[in-house]
Amino acid sequence: MTESLTRFDLPQSAIPTRWYNIQADLPRPLPPVLHPGTRQPIGPADLAPLFPMELIKQEVSQERFIDIPEEVREIYKLWRPTPLLRARRLEKALGTTARIYYKYEGVSPSGSHKLNTAVPQAFYNKQEGIQGITTETGAGQWGTAISQACNFFGLECYVYMVKVSYQQKPYRRAIIRSFGAQVTASPSDTTNCGRAALANDPNSTGSLGMAISEAVEAAATSGGKYKYALGSVLNHVLMHQTIIGQESMLQMKRAGDYPDVIIGCTGGGSNFAGIAFPFLRDKMVHGKDIRIVAVEPAACPSLTKGIYAYDFGDTAGMTPLIKMHTLGAGFIPPPVHSGGLRYHGMASIISELYDQKLIEAFAVRQLEAFAAAVTFLRAEGIVPAPEASHAIAQVIREAAAATAAGTSPVILFNLCGHGHFDMSAYDAYTSGQLTDFEYPEEAVATAMSALPKIDG
Ligand SMILES: *Cc1c(COP(=O)(O)O)cnc(C)c1O
């Protein structure tokens, strides 16, 4: 008998050389992005104050593959290819007939998948002579990644951090500052929209939507010195993450398996897109029979309870209007611990795939998510990021269903980050202080009634 393998590693030469742009294979083109003032489709010139031209081109590109610059691949070598493991000990703990695999993105220097896009974003800004980047961060993972990437390329970095995270996550603040970035609690008195928010509510704890408004304003009013970067949602961000799925395909081949179900948690949609899109191409183009499953928190259910409509990406209405699954830009998320999943909207591409029934979506409450995380960490030894634990909860549901049905599907999920900066959340869970939040239907209805009105 051959030895059973647990880890399917790839050589450095297997780091992908191209990103996969799913726009080339979508059944219909994405709905146009609209100008916040005129409400007409925007062109590249409208985005030029915010992003370097190469990223704007990627945002609208219809080319199936886009070459990864050598300078970016050089930095990817610090942690890629990332491991893919068969969760044999979890399978045993669950007593399941399913075969479970996970791709582990927590080995990146920032501890999550976010660095996969932070590096190329910083690279293209540097290449176009930009002095620095403004951005927001919620849970702190994106702030960590972009501050590292800016440091690699010698760019200044200004991070607007949602105030509640700024106060609750001093170590995130510290790591971002250690990489040389400036961190400001949002809402702040450094921008017009921040000052307006504070005038309205001096005790505001902030939201991702508000922090985006501040970062966008700071870039747009900098006279071209600074541009803005976003860690999820946008087409080019999702595309940069497809190296996760491309590597996973090679690793699953090494394992001699092919996934029947692919599972990822969804905040803005980028880590899910990263693992799923290359396989989704197999489904759309080659007719592979696979299920692709997005998992979101019940407290912030943009896919399962939001509607597919034009909305702003931020609170102050400064961003272009994007057609997406949304809970309304005025959404203030309840204080659940999966900070990275608390965004009112969902990536346009993910929303479109969901609308076309090419992917499924489920919501998980935080107590189920933390229970799943603890089951996983006791079996596999890795502390999952609270966001990733939503995916694990769905894996456990699927595994139980398979066992009950007597089937043995191959399940692959993205373990998009580790939870070493989130131990206060685990502390709350293990001491019995966590409660469940379900986003109330009335609140959904209220937020919906405030959606911008778009003709046609
Ligand atoms: C940011 C983040 C998320 C949510 O963002 P996506 O774009 O949906 O991936 C999920 N997990 C981790 C670990 C994150 O850092």
Topology readout:
Layout: E1 18-20, H1 44-47, H2 53-60, E2 65-67, H3 70-76, E3 84-86, H4 88-94, E4 99-104, H5 115-127, E5 132-137, H6 141-153, E6 156-162, H7 163-168, H8 170-178, E7 182-186, H9 192-200, H10 208-220, E8 226-228, H11 235-240, H12 243-255, E9 261-265, H13 270-286, E10 291-297, E11 307-312, E12 321-326, H14 348-355, E13 360-364, H15 366-380, H16 386-405, E14 410-415, H17 423-430, H18 441-449
Parallel strand pairs: 4-14, 5-6, 5-8, 6-7, 9-10, 9-14, 10-13
Antiparallel strand pairs: 1-2, 3-4, 11-12
Helix pairs in contact: 3-5, 4-15, 5-6, 6-8, 9-10, 12-13, 15-16
The structure holds pyridoxal-5'-phosphate.
Pyridoxal-5'-phosphate binds at residues 112, 114, 141-142, 232, 265-272, 340-341, 385, 387-388, 416-417.
Molecular structure report:
The protein is 41% helix and 16% strand. The chain contains 18 helices and 14 strands. It has helices spanning 44-47, 53-60, 70-76, 88-94, 115-127, 141-153, 163-168, 170-178, 192-200, 208-220, 235-240, 243-255, 270-286, 348-355, 366-380, 386-405, 423-430, 441-449; strands at residues 18-20, 65-67, 84-86, 99-104, 132-137, 156-162, 182-186, 226-228, 261-265, 291-297, 307-312, 321-326, 360-364, 410-415. The strands form four sheets. The chain has a six-stranded mixed β-sheet, with helices on both faces. A four-stranded parallel β-sheet has the order 7-6-5-8, sandwiched between helices. A hairpin with an 8-residue loop joins β11 (307-312) and β12 (321-326). α3 (70-76) packs antiparallel against α5, α5 (115-127) packs parallel to α6 (141-153) and α15 (366-380) crosses α16. The longest helix is centred in the last third of the chain and has 20 residues, at 386-405. The mean pLDDT is 95. Pyridoxal-5'-phosphate (PLP) binds at residues 112, 114, 141-142, 232, 265-272, 340-341, 385, 387-388, 416-417.
